[in-house]
Design brief:
Number of strands: 2
Largest sheet: 2 strands, parallel
Helix content: 40-55%
Strand content: 5-15%
Distance between the termini: 35 Å
Length: 119
């Protein structure tokens, strides 16, 4: 990824906002070591093996970087950034579809949103 591409991604994902959050002591769930170990174990079978390294070696098997990737993740683009740092793709379209689950109408009652009342 070029420097200008990295800057565009950072601008898109809101690094300034994230930096302020972290400066105030904020912690995202994915930064908790126990969570990272659990994700690693669920995907790679080993809590100490990074799941992205596992993905690249087991699924891409040396066929990377791929030309184009589509990511339907969330977590403020952290997955896409990690994949970019490891050189997994040349171009990536990252979409956070999780917000659609809350803002789209309920399939049973089209007049109601699925947004939880605590949100």
């Amino acid at each position: 990824m070029s420097d200008s591409g990295a800057r565009q991604a950072a601008q898109h994902w809101g690094d300034d906002r994230r930096a302020a959050f972290y400066a105030e002591g904020g912690l995202m769930w994915g930064q908790i070591e126990a969570v990272q170990a659990r994700i690693n174990a669920k995907i790679s079978g080993d809590p100490g093996r990074d799941w992205i390294d596992h993905l690249m070696s087991s699924q891409l098997n040396g066929m990377w970087p791929v030309e184009r990737a589509l990511s339907l993740c969330c977590y403020e683009g952290q997955v896409e950034r990690a994949l970019a740092r490891k050189g997994a793709f040349r171009h990536c379209l990252g979409l956070d579809i999780s917000c659609l689950l809350y803002t789209s109408p309920s399939p049973r009652d089209r007049t109601r949103s699925r947004m939880p009342s605590s949100a």
